[in-house]
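Human: If only I could read C-alpha coordinates as easily as an amino acid sequence. Take your time, and here it is.
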Amino acid sequence: MLDLDLLPEEYAVCRLPAGSALPASLSSGPDVKGVISVTWAPDELSIICPADRVPEDATVEASWRCLRVVGPLDLALTGVLASLAGPLAEARVNIVAFSTYDTDYLLVPAVRLSEALDTLTAVGHRIAA
Protein backbone atom coordinates (compact mmCIF):
# COMPACT_ATOMS: atom_id res chain seq x y z
CA MET A 1 0.00 0.00 0.00
CA LEU A 2 1.07 3.57 -0.62
CA ASP A 3 1.46 6.67 1.51
CA LEU A 4 -0.06 9.76 -0.09
CA ASP A 5 0.04 13.45 0.75
CA LEU A 6 -2.98 15.62 -0.01
CA LEU A 7 -1.61 18.94 -1.21
CA PRO A 8 -3.38 21.91 0.40
CA GLU A 9 -4.43 23.99 -2.59
CA GLU A 10 -6.74 23.50 -5.55
CA TYR A 11 -5.17 22.82 -8.93
CA ALA A 12 -5.99 23.58 -12.55
CA VAL A 13 -5.20 21.79 -15.82
CA CYS A 14 -4.35 24.38 -18.47
CA ARG A 15 -3.72 24.40 -22.21
CA LEU A 16 -1.89 27.03 -24.23
CA PRO A 17 -1.30 26.99 -27.99
CA ALA A 18 1.61 25.08 -29.50
CA GLY A 19 4.82 27.09 -29.44
CA SER A 20 3.84 29.12 -26.38
CA ALA A 21 6.59 30.11 -23.98
CA LEU A 22 6.42 29.26 -20.29
CA PRO A 23 4.27 32.00 -18.72
CA ALA A 24 6.20 34.38 -16.48
CA SER A 25 3.74 33.70 -13.65
CA LEU A 26 5.11 30.14 -13.45
CA SER A 27 8.81 30.82 -13.95
CA SER A 28 9.53 30.95 -10.22
CA GLY A 29 8.34 27.38 -9.75
CA PRO A 30 5.95 26.00 -7.13
CA ASP A 31 5.50 26.86 -3.48
CA VAL A 32 7.28 24.65 -0.95
CA LYS A 33 4.52 21.99 -0.85
CA GLY A 34 3.10 22.58 -4.32
CA VAL A 35 3.86 21.24 -7.77
CA ILE A 36 3.79 22.61 -11.30
CA SER A 37 3.98 20.28 -14.29
CA VAL A 38 4.81 21.65 -17.74
CA THR A 39 4.57 19.53 -20.90
CA TRP A 40 5.41 20.90 -24.32
CA ALA A 41 3.97 18.83 -27.16
CA PRO A 42 3.77 19.49 -30.90
CA ASP A 43 0.13 20.57 -30.60
CA GLU A 44 -0.01 22.26 -27.18
CA LEU A 45 1.66 23.48 -24.01
CA SER A 46 -0.05 21.72 -21.12
CA ILE A 47 0.35 22.98 -17.56
CA ILE A 48 -0.85 21.64 -14.22
CA CYS A 49 -0.53 24.29 -11.53
CA PRO A 50 -2.14 25.72 -8.40
CA ALA A 51 -5.44 27.39 -9.34
CA ASP A 52 -4.16 30.78 -8.21
CA ARG A 53 -1.28 30.60 -10.75
CA VAL A 54 -3.30 29.92 -13.93
CA PRO A 55 -1.72 31.62 -16.97
CA GLU A 56 -3.66 34.33 -18.80
CA ASP A 57 -5.33 33.24 -22.06
CA ALA A 58 -5.18 29.55 -21.12
CA THR A 59 -7.99 27.09 -21.66
CA VAL A 60 -8.61 25.89 -18.10
CA GLU A 61 -10.22 22.98 -16.28
CA ALA A 62 -10.17 24.09 -12.65
CA SER A 63 -11.15 22.71 -9.24
CA TRP A 64 -8.88 19.69 -8.91
CA ARG A 65 -7.21 18.42 -5.73
CA CYS A 66 -3.77 16.85 -5.87
CA LEU A 67 -2.48 13.70 -4.19
CA ARG A 68 1.27 13.05 -4.17
CA VAL A 69 2.67 9.55 -3.69
CA VAL A 70 5.29 9.81 -0.95
CA GLY A 71 8.59 9.09 -2.63
CA PRO A 72 11.09 8.92 -3.99
CA LEU A 73 9.99 5.91 -5.99
CA ASP A 74 12.28 3.60 -7.92
CA LEU A 75 11.65 4.05 -11.65
CA ALA A 76 11.58 0.24 -11.98
CA LEU A 77 8.47 -0.06 -9.79
CA THR A 78 5.34 -1.26 -11.55
CA GLY A 79 1.69 -0.93 -10.67
CA VAL A 80 1.90 2.27 -8.61
CA LEU A 81 -0.57 4.28 -10.69
CA ALA A 82 -2.68 1.19 -11.34
CA SER A 83 -3.16 0.68 -7.58
CA LEU A 84 -4.62 4.19 -7.40
CA ALA A 85 -6.39 4.49 -10.74
CA GLY A 86 -8.05 1.06 -10.61
CA PRO A 87 -10.10 1.59 -7.45
CA LEU A 88 -10.96 5.15 -8.49
CA ALA A 89 -12.13 3.93 -11.89
CA GLU A 90 -14.35 1.35 -10.19
CA ALA A 91 -15.80 4.18 -8.07
CA ARG A 92 -16.22 6.22 -11.29
CA VAL A 93 -13.95 9.02 -10.03
CA ASN A 94 -12.13 10.59 -12.98
CA ILE A 95 -8.44 11.42 -12.60
CA VAL A 96 -5.52 13.19 -14.23
CA ALA A 97 -2.20 11.51 -13.46
CA PHE A 98 1.32 12.79 -14.00
CA SER A 99 4.79 11.81 -12.87
CA THR A 100 8.16 13.31 -12.03
CA TYR A 101 11.50 11.58 -11.71
CA ASP A 102 10.86 10.90 -8.01
CA THR A 103 7.14 10.23 -7.69
CA ASP A 104 3.61 10.19 -9.08
CA TYR A 105 0.76 12.66 -8.70
CA LEU A 106 -2.97 12.23 -9.08
CA LEU A 107 -5.57 14.95 -9.59
CA VAL A 108 -9.17 14.25 -8.59
CA PRO A 109 -12.10 16.63 -8.99
CA ALA A 110 -12.47 18.76 -5.85
CA VAL A 111 -16.18 17.90 -5.68
CA ARG A 112 -15.28 14.18 -5.55
CA LEU A 113 -12.36 14.48 -3.09
CA SER A 114 -14.12 12.88 -0.13
CA GLU A 115 -15.25 9.94 -2.26
CA ALA A 116 -11.75 9.54 -3.72
CA LEU A 117 -10.10 9.57 -0.28
CA ASP A 118 -12.63 7.05 1.07
CA THR A 119 -12.04 4.79 -1.94
CA LEU A 120 -8.26 4.89 -1.62
CA THR A 121 -8.22 4.30 2.14
CA ALA A 122 -10.69 1.42 1.75
CA VAL A 123 -8.10 -0.43 -0.37
CA GLY A 124 -5.32 0.24 2.16
CA HIS A 125 -3.62 3.43 1.01
CA ARG A 126 -2.71 5.94 3.74
CA ILE A 127 -3.40 9.64 3.21
CA ALA A 128 -1.91 12.57 5.14
CA ALA A 129 -3.29 16.09 4.80
User: Anything to note?
Assistant: Helices lie at 80-90, 113-122. The beta strands are 3-16, 37-41, 44-50, 59-69, 96-99, 104-109, 126-128. The mean pLDDT is 90.
